Amino acid sequence: MSPTVEQHAENWDLRHADFNDPDFLYDVYTVMRGNSPFARTDNPFLSATPSGAWVAVRYAECVQILQDWEHFSSSPTPEGAEQLAGDLVITLDPPRQQKFRKVLNPYFSPARMKALRHEIAAETDDLIDVFIESGSGDLAEVAWRQPGIVFFKYLLGMPVDDVPLCVELTDTALNGATEEARMGAWGGLYQHLHDAVTARTAEPPRDDMIDVLLSAEIDGEKLAFGDVVSNAMLLVQAGLETTASAMSFAYHYLATHPAERDRLIAEPDLLARAVEEFIRFAGSIHGIPRTVAKEVELSGCTFSLGESVIVNYASANRDEEQFPEADRCILDRRENRHLGFGAGVHRCLGSNLARLEFQVGLERVLTRMPDFTLTAGAEAKFHGNSVTRGFRSVPVTFTPAARTR
Ligand code: HEM
């Protein structure tokens, strides 16, 4: 028999198959937030902690943890450190973490992103062209391919042909059925990037992120080769599945809410706010760990040295104390200080890119197939027992139109 909502809330296990449902996990979060600011899990999704972990589920405590890196460090537990290959920006604390960001930040500046708008629109159009003449297609294909193509081609400097393999390896690394399959996929992704970066060392420099990592100096020293590969791998992993799953949710939502779809077409100025709401409502990550670096008390709970605390951004984003009608997707929501991109020193480095890809992805679909709806009788496929959740298939029907080229 499946556990009840209350049983799930007692011991949160994100890999449980019950969460392959768009709403049930949020019912569990409501109970978790009602019980206490901190829940427990025996099976942390990303952190290797044999004794389980705390889970911060309310908005206020999540923000406090994210802003207090001196007590809640991003360095993994000793068990977690064994699984890491290299110094990653996301598992470092300041001041070294800030120096890594200084190296990468210019590549994600608003000005650089703005200059990419035209290319992102053209890449999205190419993906829509695959099915636009037929009057039916799968919008998950657009959501899952566009972020990878854009990132590999215009920022990272990896061949676009590598995108499907990297998406598949990242997916298996996060969601594979066994620990062995997951570790095998991490290894495969690392090896793939290792080979790609090695090949680049023999080529003349280009203006892309692999070269930036290869030539970067921190405290007067170049990055170790392993750190270049690991950070390239982090970028691939952080930038693909997150944006793709959030965008797939938005396509499904608009395909099943035609009045909302029509409103976005009639009021395109709402798009930016709608993207923020999609990220708050469904696009956020469901937990990244912190390790307690010094004993500390927060909201009546004492955290001891070495314990693991998972920050559940997605649950925080549904906290009624912060967001009125938190369980409603309100496309023109005004006050929306969501935690979808995190907060504090590790706030998402790629948020400007993700927002642009997302906005352009919506804008091109709404412009070119304005009457799209979920295909009657066909099934949308949702994958939800994962740290990022989204649709793997969104079959839609619409009035056929001409290709762009
Ligand atoms: C909708 C899409 C995205 C979401 C929801 C998202 C979410 C997040 C969150 C919650 C964090 C904070 C992690 C922490 O607190 O430890 C983060 C960090 C990060 N994100 Fe994103 N992200 C998205 C897209 C991207 C993209 C497109 C890239 C790059 C191509 C990217 C690269 C990174 C990196 C490198 C970090 C680590 C920053 C640091 O540790 O200083 N993300 N992201």
From TrEMBL:
Cite the entry's keywords alphabetically.
Heme, Iron, Metal-binding, Monooxygenase, Oxidoreductase
Highest taxon, organism lineage: Bacteria
Q: GO MF terms on file? A: heme binding; iron ion binding; monooxygenase activity; oxidoreductase activity, acting on paired donors, with incorporation or reduction of molecular oxygen
- Assigned protein family: Belongs to the cytochrome P450 family.
Which InterPro entries did the record assign?
Cyt_P450, Cyt_P450_B, Cyt_P450_CS, Cyt_P450_sf
Protein name as annotated: Cytochrome P450
Q: Which Pfam family, just one, is annotated for this protein?
A: p450
User: Native species of this protein?
Assistant: Mycolicibacterium gilvum (strain DSM 45189 / LMG 24558 / Spyr1)
Does the keyword section mention Iron? yes
Q: Which Gene3D superfamilies match?
A: Cytochrome P450 (1.10.630.10)
The question of whether Cytoplasm is a record keyword is answered with no
